[in-house]
Amino acid sequence: MKTIHTIGLFTLILSSCFGQTCTHTRYIDSLFATEALYNIDYQNARPYGSLIDITYQLDLYKPLGDTLISRPLMLFQFGGGYLIGDKLNPPAPDFCTYWAQRGYICASINYRLGFNTLFTESAERAVYRAIQDLQAALRFLVDEQHTYGIDTNHIIISGNSAGAISSLHNAFMDIDQIPASASGFGFGLDANDLGGPYSSGNTNHGNNEVLAHGYLACWGGMLDTNFVGDRSDDFLPVILFHGVEDDAVSYNSDHPFSFPAFPLLHGSKPLKLRMDNMGMMSSLIPFEGAGHEPELLNPAYLDTILSESASFMYDEVLKPKLTSINGDLAPFLNSTGTYTVTSDDSLSGLCVSLNLGTIINQTTNSVTIQWLNPGYDTLEITGSNQIKAFDTLTLPIEVNSTSELNAHFTTRPFRIYPNPSIDQIFIENETERLLFINLFTVDGKLISTISSSNQLIPIDLKEFNSSLIIVNCRNNAHNSSQLIRFGF
After folding, report:
1. CA 46/CA 302 separation, integer angstroms
2. Most exposed of 53, 92, 325, 351 (fewest Cβ within 10 Å)?
3. 167, 162, 198, 220: which is closest to 45 by C-alpha?
4. DSSP β-bridge partners for residue 157
5. For residue 21, pLDDT beyond 50
6. What is the assigned CATH class of domain 411-488?
7. Where in the chain is the domain with CATH 3.40.50.1820?
8. What's the pTM value of the predicted model, to 2 decimals?
9. 330-370 residue pLDDT tens
10. What are the Cα distances from residue 172, in Å, to 57, 229, 379?
């Protein structure tokens, strides 16, 4: 029998290990029916070829019956070469419904279309207008986050073709990298200064930039791969999908449709290479033999895009990343210890699994355990953040058969020195009893096991890829652990 204790958001239970208690499939599996809210005005902006502003709208897809107050936002921009398209064109309805079924809010937006296909500068301005409109939609949704139940700490931007091009430039093109054509080009209806990237369309969010937390780009490209990774806020998770035989937006580098008046774009392959060289978190799924937007004719491609993206975004954007469990690895019998979880996100609850003890107190990031039985155990802690995404860590535990009271009256028969150390430590084993030595990383991973009855036991630390290790020593009467710093 294994005791399962759920803490914080959960109910305390004592029973066999039922997996559903400590696991959750939200954001991965379809859990909800959905509804769509159509034609929500988000901006008024002047399109190509017009003297007046026009109202632009977005559609919102949301889960029904969801009790979560705030949900991650997935925003989608359709494709169409900046000449045609609409927020309801495929695959937008299926795309957004998929995310809403899994607990997201999904927005599909209309944006300004049109440019003079004979001039590179006019094409650049079309991309820039779409970036302005993307930011206007984000500003609107941030201001309306309570109306629509949006968690603004988990925003993901996605797009197909032209929408992917806009999304990627929104992610990586900084203000000083905006093409000069944005401030004015030629004569007539495309000659006006388009203004700053965050000043168009509305005054929401104080006309400040809204930063996303992840990107999903299908059949996209960028003007310059050097835009990627040159600023600190570029280091966001990105997943790319591209047909290797794409002749509209090249998988490699080419002018769209190989038409020289269109700007040269660098596709997913060189973008992925740049991201790898800069040490960024990214994934590229190439479709061998596929062209441009194959999912419009073959739904299997869309299925792959969605399933791969759901797992990627859960792991890299949504879930809290538990980095360590801090506590005693070798507690005495009947002793009480507190185990604290560190994470990159604030936690709203824990789920804890163990065999040899009982929980006597808990908070949202710690658990206090009384160890009631001697032996080896694994402490498993799963942490949840505010949007009910989960991560899990384990810690090996050895409960000493000696009680803490008895240990106070017994001289410890071994000593570890020096600490800190440059590259070697020594363990003095005074009684020359058989001594078992376990070396752990600070997050509880066993990296080496040694046994010896020598009076002086040297241990070489140069082979370990860490500056901190936990050394646990035990014999048939004693058990203790010490944190060692080395390599300084």
Report:
1. 33
2. 53
3. 198
4. 75, 215
5. no
6. mainly beta
7. 31-318
8. 0.81
9. 898 999 999 999 999 999 999 999 999 999 999 999 999 99
10. 25, 7, 42
Radius of gyration of the chain (CA): 28
Residue 173 one-letter amino acid: M
**Mind listing the pLDDT tens digit for each residue in 32-68?**
999 999 999 999 999 998 999 999 999 999 999 999 9
Indicate the SS3 state at residue 37.
Answer: strand
Q: Describe the strand order of the beta sheet including 322-326 as a list of residue ranges.
A: 322-326, 336-343, 366-371, 357-362
| Pair 228, 271: CB distance under 8 Å | yes
For residue 487, what are its two tokens? 């390599």
3-state secondary structure (DSSP) of residue 356:
coil
Q: Residues in the chain, how many?
A: 488
Q: Is the peptide bond before 420 cis (omega within 30 degrees of 0)?
A: yes
Instruction: Burial-class residue 405 by CB neighbours within 10 Å (0-12, 13-18, 19+).
Output: exposed
Who contacts 1 (Cβ-Cβ below 8 Å, separation ≥6)? 16
CATH homologous superfamily of 31-318 equals: Alpha/Beta hydrolase fold, catalytic domain (3.40.50.1820)
